[in-house]
Amino acid sequence: MALANLTSAPEFLLLGLMDGTDIHPLLFLLFLGVYLVNALGNLSMVVVVVRSDGALRSPMYYFLGHLGLVDICFTTVTVPRLLAGLLHPGQAVSSQGCFAQMYFFVALGITESYLLAAMCYDRAVAVCRPLHYGALMTPRRCAALVGASWAVAHLHSLLHTLLISRLSFPRPAPVCHFFCDMTVMLRLATSDTSASETAIFSEGLAVVLTPLFLVSLSYARILVAVLGVRSAGGRHRAFSTCGTHLVVVLLFFGSVLSVYFRPASAYSARYDRLASVVYAVVTPTLNPFIYSLRNKEVKGALKRGLRWRAAPQEV
């Protein structure tokens, strides 16, 4: 039934980030610049730092490599459509393309949230149990954490995509967003949405709150350990590092919760689009700079990688 609905349903019209039919070249240049910075930062983290430097093989960099890969894909799912909508509002998208975008957006977003939780757990173990770190954060356990993040996210996304794809939509269906988002699609549907809404507010809430709970628990343990440090300089460095990490995490989870888990009476299309920019564009762009490129080891590996690539040209 879902497949029949996908093949017979009309095209969706993405109305874009801004209201109206005017083009916005300055915003186009801004978001294009942000997207290029995102791609450069995350590719540097994945290719040059993690894959090319043998010294960076600790669990933290293993998680960072996967986070960089997810961030590149996460923004690529939505930003190209956002850029096109700023120059040509009212982009037509097929049903297959719309639901495919929804599937990968949800899957990659949930994967990112669980990877952030795994990274916080890794830091908590390093700070609270440094003598047992090697025994606890084994390569097998790290691979299991990453694999579970991908598996849970894709199963969650598949469930919601199948439920929403079974709904009926008007012909044509104007999507007041810059991508095919679940909340917008539910509001567009002309058939009963109770099953989909129940799934989002029960299973969806559990899936999102689990990594948030793990992040909170990890940072609470780190805070207790840091407060026990006698050196004022050591506490300052730890708070400085953890503080920036926590701000990015709160931006991501806060914007997600404010969009997907609030009363229907509080719905605002403009707010949803602005909040979506925070967790779909801003935080993936900040991640490589907050988590890795501020690190001295990472910057050293990046410089060594760039020098190694420039060396053949000088011969």
The parts where pLDDT drops under 50 for at least 5 residues are 1-7
Number of helices: 11
Which band does the percent of strand residues land in? under 5%
Oligomer: single chain
Say how many strands there are. Answer: 3
Largest sheet: 3 strands, mixed
Give a written overview of the molecule.
The protein has 315 residues and is an all-alpha fold. The protein has 11 helices and 3 strands, in the order H-E-H-H-E-H-H-H-E-H-H-H-H-H. The protein has a 3-stranded mixed beta sheet with strand order 2-1-3.
Give structural attributes.
3% strand; single chain; mainly alpha; 11 helices; disordered N terminus; 3 strands; 315 residues; 3-stranded mixed β-sheet; 76% helix
Tell me briefly what this model is.
This protein is mainly α and 315 residues long. The protein contains 11 helices and 3 strands; from the N terminus they run αβααβαααβααααα. The protein is 76% helix and 3% strand.
Helix/strand layout:
Elements: H1 2-8, E1 12-14, H2 25-51, H3 59-87, E2 91-93, H4 95-128, H5 133-136, H6 139-165, E3 173-175, H7 182-188, H8 194-227, H9 232-260, H10 269-291, H11 296-314
Parallel strand pairs: 1-3
Antiparallel strand pairs: 1-2
Helix pairs in contact: 2-3, 2-10, 2-11, 3-4, 3-10, 4-6, 4-8, 6-8, 8-9, 9-10
